[in-house]
Structures are given as C-alpha cells and as structure tokens.
Amino acid sequence: MAFYFDEPSRTFNEYLLVPGYSSSECIPSKVSLKAALSKHRKGAEPELSLNIPLVSAIMQSVSDDGMAIALATEGGLSFIFGSQPLEQQAAMVARVKNYKAGFVDSDANLSPDMTLAEVLELKERLGHSTMPVTEDGSANGKLLGIVTSRDYRITRTAASERVADFMTPREKMVAAPLETSLKVANDIIWDNKLNSVPIVDGDDHLVHMVFRKDYDSHKSNPLEMLDSQKRYMVGAGINTRDYAERVPALVEAGADLLCIDSSEGHSAWQEQTLGWIRAQFGEGVKVGAGNVVDAEGFRFLAEAGADFVKVGIGGGSICITREQKGIGRGQATALIEVAQARNAYFKETGVYVPLCSDGGIVYDHHMTLALAMGADFLMLGRYFARFDESPTNKVNINGSYMKEYWGEGSARARNWQRYDLGGEKTGLTFEEGVDSYVPYAGSLKDNVALTLAKMRSTMCNCGALTIPELQAKAKLTTVSSTSIVEGGAHDVLLKDKTPYVGSSIGLR
Question: How far apart are CA 445 and CA 8, in angstroms?
Fold first, then answer.
C-alpha cells in the first residue's frame, strides 16, 4: 500500500525563530552572509561560494545578462535561463563575463562625420557620455579621437556640427598599448586625472576601454562576485535533452556554474545528464541538480554527482504543478527533511553538498527561516522579477506600476524541457505555470540591501554571525493559525492599509 508521511506538509509561514543569547559581539555589521555554492570535503573550502545567499531563478522573466550583472554586483549570482536558443544563452553569458573584466568593449562609438545631434541621441539612448571616435565608427576601428561632455556645450555648439570639429583628437589623448594590465591602466587614469583610457593595438585600432567609474564601483561594492580574473561570475540553466551541445558552449562562453532546470529531479534523465558532464569534464564543471522534496531524492542526486541540490516542488507563486498534477510538498517540511539527509550524508561520506531552497518565500523573514532550516542559499523568482533589472516590461495596471512575470511552465514560456518525462519530444501538453504581474519595486540594489539588513538583524537575535552558526543555534517553533494573526498588525485601525508593502515579496 502507499506510504504515508507522519508529519503534515508545512510552509515557512507556520514557523518562527525563537531568539537566543546575543553577545556584545553579535551586531549586524559583523554578520557574514557567505554561503557555500559547490560541494566540498570536510575541512576544505568550497571552490565556489556566494557573498550573499541569493541567486535568481532560471526563468525568462527573471534572469538575463542585465539581472546577472546587477546581482553579481551585490554579491549574488544569476542563472541565465536556458529556454532559448543555445547561441543566445551563450551570448548572454559572454556579455556578463566581458562586462566588467575591467576592459570594456565600447558600445557607444562615433565616426568623424557624425553630428552633435547624433552624439546626443546616442548618449540619451545608451547613457554614455564618453564615446571613442574611430575611422569607421566601429568598436575596433582606428582611433581618431574621443568625445566627452567636456568637448561641447549644447547652448554654444550647433547640432549640425561634425564630430571631427569638436572632438579631442588622438594626438591629445592618453592611450595604452594592448599588453597593459588592469592595474597599470587604472594607474594611468589616476596619474593623468582621466575618466577613461583607451586600449589600442599596434596599428592604433581601439580594442577596449578602461573606465575610472568601474574602479570606483568595485570599491563601493566590496561583496561583488568576481572570478580569478576579476570578471563577474554567472551561472546558466541546462536541460536533460540537449546538454551535449549546450554544456560545452556555455563552458566556452565562461559560465562559472550550471544547473539542471527541472520541475522534478529524482529521475534517470538527471542522472544521465550529470554522468555525461562528469565523463566529459570531470569535476572541473560545477553543476547543480533538482528539484527534490525528500531524503531519497537528495541521496539520489548527491550520489549522481550534483555539486548542489535544489529543493522545492510546487511552492512558487506562479507554479500550479500541485494543482495540475497533485505532486509536491510544503517547502518548510521538504527543506527540513532534505537538510537532515544532507547532514547525514556529510557525516557518512565527509562530502558537504549545499542546498538551494527554491520556492515558498512570501516575506523577507522566510529567507532567514529557510537558512536556519538548512538551506545554504535561496533561489528567488518573483522577488527579482519586480526590479528594474529584470528583463520584463513595466506596465501601468489600474494606476499602479507592475512588472510582467510568467512561469516556465506557462503557455507563454513553453519550456517543455523543464517538465520533460522522457520519450518522444511532445512539447508542453498542459500548463504548470501562469502568466501574471507583480508590483514594481524599483532598483535591485536598494531592495536587496533592505532584505539583507533584516536577515543580519534576525541572525543577531539568534546569536549567530554566520549561516552555519545560525543553523547550529537556531530554535524553531511551529505556530497556530491564531498565532499567525497575532504576529501581524491587529485590533487597530491602520493609517496605511498596506503595512507589508516592501516585505511581501513572493517567489516563483
């Protein structure tokens, strides 16, 4: 007969953290949110770690190269969505890796015959005030000069005036040869009081630009996710169908980490995909797998070679898998059981496999609960979809700004590979996700800073300065339905009828 679990399937909203002793050392500024991103042996450091425990979901409406750059700046990581042609996904990965190697490919270039009107239009469209002038107007043409906002005055320079007549000519510029290191390039900028320096080859063709603002940006964002070459780190989603073509291309493009994107990970297809990657690349290519919701599923993927395991089925805000198919599990219950299995596996083998909690987050405090329950980091969809940096449209709905947000199992995404059960390629037979809107929330930087401030404060309340310490010290209690009501504003007439705006952030 069927197996029945003794415990009910619970959500994060059914738990609270009970405060512990906070020493005088336990203050938010001393909290480290560093998190393991890849498996490692006992006593060893993981090859990959996050500076904050947040990654963006493998979704068309969430994770493109723009989101990846913004999140890496804050210390997290994006997984570029895989439900697109391989060439496009690889190009997104490459753009992230090239964005801030320090050496930037110029995307705002002028020819000497262009006019000031065209310069202003390009500046308005791209937001750049520094534009190299090349012989043919290309990013790698022979360098003839440069135009900055100091080279013209809109009130005095005619809109029809040619770039050649007001640019700073090449002979008055400071440039650096191709072999120049990033450190030397920055020294040239500082020594000559410049905002940028062009990097040119032996024939004086423009190759890269190095900008002062990138140096300043790094100093003001100490948690940036950078690889050994000081490039932004980025992940990418793969599926269990075309991995033999997709994986090599993504690795070649520079992806630091891959993740099998599937609604259910306890399958022969994921085992085959992981086995192929290990046979072709050994342990050099890091790849996560999932999703699972019980100990058996975790053990299966850990033994198959996953570098991290993703936990959660049916808990996302746009996911209707539970309604359509009747499978899944409450996210808190799933995470607690899988974390126990992970700890047992670590004790048995000496190998620690990080867990990614994917789904079920409704409020900021649910994030800290998930970490306390054993997650090493969190995959968020709806949370990031609300920001300027997500790839979706901002629209006005009944007087309020919203962002479009759709699931990978929706008719709009038609990502049938994510829900693939093998056999012939049949496409998306029925929907497991919806097409929706989420309230627009502004910039990623501001919202993430607020979320992390809450997380650090809660950890201090529990007497913990690191995520592993939180997991060791956390005391959790289940709450009754009336206790949940008691925990919010009640028995008062609210001046603001939306007290949780800014903290109700839902996930996938």
Answer: 38
Of 95, 386, 418, 508, the active-site residue reads 418
Which tokens belong to 81? Answer: 């969505």
102: left (phi over 0), alpha (psi -120 to 50) or beta: left
pLDDT tens for each residue of 117-161: 999 999 888 888 899 999 999 999 999 999 999 999 988 899 999
Q: Are the C-beta atoms of 266 and 295 separated by less than 8 Å?
A: no
Assess whether pLDDT exceeds 70 at residue 421.
no
**Alpha-carbon span 33 to 167, nearest angstrom:** 47
**Integer Cα distance of 263 and 408 in angstroms:** 10
Given 319, 356, 460, 462, the catalytic residue = 319
| pTM assigned to the model | 0.81
Alpha-carbon Rg for the chain in angstroms: 25
The beta strands (E) that lie in 377-481 are given as 377-380, 394-397, 400-406, 435-439, 476-478
The answer to whether the Cα torsion of 368, 370, 371, 373 is positive or negative is positive
Farthest-apart Cα atoms in the chain, separation: 86
Whether 319 is catalytic: yes
Cis omega before residue 192 (within 30°)?
no
The sign of the torsion formed by the CA atoms of 502, 503, 504, 505 equals: positive
* CB within 8 Å of 95: residues ≥ 6 apart: 65
C-alpha separations of 60 from 81, 171, 237, 403 in Å = 6, 47, 11, 13
Helix (DSSP H) and strand (DSSP E) numbers for the chain: 16, 23
C-alpha to C-alpha distance for 198 and 191, rounded to whole angstroms:
15
How, if at all, do strands 176-177 and 35-36 pair? unpaired
Count of CB atoms situated within 10 Å of the CB of 320: 17
CB atoms under 10 Å from CB of 142, counted, come to: 16
Q: Are strands 351-352 and 309-311 parallel, antiparallel or unpaired?
A: unpaired
Parallel, antiparallel, or unpaired: how do β-strands 40-41 and 15-17 relate?
A: unpaired
Distance from C-alpha of 248 to C-alpha of 87, rounded to nearest angstrom: 12
pLDDT in tens, 353-368: 999 999 999 999 999 9
Segment holding 278, helix H or strand E: helix 268-281
